[in-house]
C-alpha cells in the first residue's frame, strides 16, 4: 500500500467515524425529543380511548352508533370484532398488528388501571408485573397473557 492509499484509507475511516457519530447524535436528539413527545402523546390518546371504551361499554346504545360510524367511514369489521378493536380502528385507522396491541391495552386498562393512574405508569407497572405471573394479584392472573402481550408490545414506552 502506498503512502497516498494509506492516507485515503485513514481519511475515509475518519469520515465514516464522524458520519456515524453525527447520525448517533441525531438519533439521540430524536429519541429525547420527538420520539419521547410522541410516546407521551400516545399515552394520553390511549388514556382517552380507555375512557371512550368504558363509556360505550356502559351505554350499549352507543355501540350501534359506533357501528354506524364504522359503516359510514367504510371501515370493514367482522361481526365478532371486539369493541376495543372497533374503537382502535376508528381512532388509529388501519395500523396493522398495533390495532390488536392497542385493543388489548384498552381492555386490560379498562379493567385494571386506577381512575387517577396515568397510562404511562399503568404500562410500566404492567410490564413489571408481566415479567412474572406470580407477582400478579390472584384476580389478575387470568389476564396475565393479555397483560404480558400488551406490556411487551409497549415495553419501549415504559422506558421513558
Overall description:
It is a single chain. By secondary structure, this protein is mainly alpha-helical. It has one domain. Helices cover 72% and strands 0% of the residues. The protein starts with a helix and ends in a 7-residue tail after the last helix.
Features:
single chain; 160 residues; mainly alpha; 0% strand; disordered C terminus
Q: Estimate the mean pLDDT confidence.
A: 79
Number of strands: 0
Query: What count of structural domains?
Result: 1
| Biggest sheet character | none
Note the overall shape.
Answer: elongated
Low-pLDDT parts are: 156-160
Q: Give the SSE string.
A: HHHHHH
- Rg, rounded, reads 23 Å
Q: Helix segment count?
A: 6
Topology:
Blueprint: H1 3-58, H2 61-72, H3 83-92, H4 97-112, H5 119-130, H6 144-153
Compose a concise summary of this entry.
With 160 residues, the protein is mainly alpha-helical. It is built from six helices and no strands.
Amino acid at each position: 500500500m502506498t503512502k497516498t492509499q494509506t492516507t485515503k484509507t485513514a481519511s475515509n475511516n475518519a469520515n465514516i467515524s464522524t458520519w456515524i457519530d453525527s447520525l448517533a447524535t441525531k438519533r439521540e436528539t430524536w429519541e429525547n425529543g420527538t420520539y419521547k413527545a410522541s410516546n407521551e402523546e400516545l399515552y394520553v390518546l390511549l388514556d382517552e380511548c380507555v375512557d371512550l371504551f368504558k363509556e360505550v361499554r356502559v351505554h350499549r346504545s352507543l355501540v350501534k352508533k359506533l357501528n354506524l360510524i364504522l359503516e359510514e367511514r367504510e371501515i370493514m369489521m367482522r361481526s365478532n370484532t371486539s369493541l376495543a378493536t372497533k374503537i382502535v380502528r376508528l381512532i388509529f385507522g388501519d395500523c396493522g398488528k398495533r390495532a390488536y396491541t392497542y385493543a388489548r391495552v384498552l381492555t386490560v386498562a379498562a379493567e385494571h388501571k386506577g381512575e387517577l393512574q396515568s397510562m404511562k405508569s399503568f404500562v410500566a407497572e404492567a410490564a413489571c408485573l408481566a415479567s412474572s405471573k406470580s407477582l400478579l394479584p390472584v384476580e389478575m392472573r387470568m389476564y396475565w397473557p393479555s397483560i404480558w402481550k400488551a406490556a411487551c408490545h409497549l415495553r419501549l414506552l415504559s422506558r421513558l
